[in-house]
Structures are given as structure tokens and as C-alpha cells.
Amino acid sequence: MKSLKDLFENNREWAESVRSEDPSFFETLAAQQNPEYLWIGCSDSRVPANQIVGLLPGEVFVHRNVANMVVHTDFNCLTVLQYAVDVLKIKHVIVVGHYNCGGVQAAYENADNGMIDNWLRNIKDVHHAHRERINALEDEEARVDLLCELNVMTQVANVCHTSIAQNAWARGQKLEVHGWIYSLKDGLLQDLGCTVTGADQIPEVYRILPKKS
Ligand code: CO
Model-level pTM? Predict the structure, then answer.
């Protein structure tokens, strides 16, 4: 077990090693950030954004919560998304789920977990919407794995349904929204093939029409 003192020691060593590779690294980053990616991932300590994709500080803007969700009344997530799209002009929003997600597992089960069940209810809705596909699987681990994937795909759709993404597309800004899943067992990412690149790819009921001038 590391103590807090060890963490500060680690930090000094890390800063020193970065500086020895590139003496102006921190000065350049302090002046501006210019990331191309917004990572929306799970808070799980085993899924750290930068490390998994080998990116340095300054290269990925990150939002993490339990079970990598994009809920349309969550001002925290929406604030991150708006800043990333409107100000930083990031080109890719990537929703990254992972197998063996405790949040998804808890949503799959029917236990009373208290307050957090209100958050996990969003995943229960995903389960209910896809219950036939999920229940067709015999193996429980396979069911939860599929629910992890379907949750990512749903959150990709939720990003695309926001006025933030749609306004970006309406003004001609290039924005791609992707869904990936990470395996804790081998450290590998997989693209779920649900990339959306424009409002023409979302259901009509969610589309926002341009303001009449
Ligand atoms: Co998780």
C-alpha cells in the first residue's frame, strides 16, 4: 500500500522524467490545451483514459462517471461535452465502456443498492429495451457483457441527440461520435462499429430543426 507521501514522490519523479524528455513540455501545455478527443468513460480505476490509448497530458479531454453514461439532465456531463465541442473543437467523442463493469452488473441485478439505483436505472432501461436479445443468451456473463456493449451504444446515441452535437453538425463542424469497449482481461479496446458522423444518422424524433431566421 502506498502512502500519500509516496504519491508526491512519484509525482516529482514523473515531472522530472517528462521534463528530461522535453524541457518545454509543461510550459507549452500551460499555455494551451488542444485535444482532439473527448473520452467519456467509466470511473473504474482499471480503465484510465490516457494510459490505455498511449496519450500524453493535453491530448485527451476526459469525463468519467459510473458506467460511462450520458444522461440528458446531467449538467456535469453536458458541460464537459459543450466545452469540448464548442470551445476545444474536439473531432471525436468516444464513449468507452468496459466488460466486468460493476455499475452495469449492479443494474443487471435486482438488489437494493440505495441512491445509486437512480443512476443505474438508465441501464435498466437499456436492459428492458433489449431484453429479448439479452435473455436469448444462456450464460449470465455473456448477458452482462452484451448489456455493457448495448449501454455504450445507447450513450453514443445520447451524445448525438444533444443540441450540442446537432448544433455542431448544423454549422458544418466535423464531429464523429464513437462507441468502444475495453476488456480488463487483456487490456484491449474494441470498436463497436456504431460511429455517427451527422444528424442524418439519428432518428427523426430526436432531430433539432435549425432556427427560422
Ligand atoms: Co465500470
Answer: 0.95
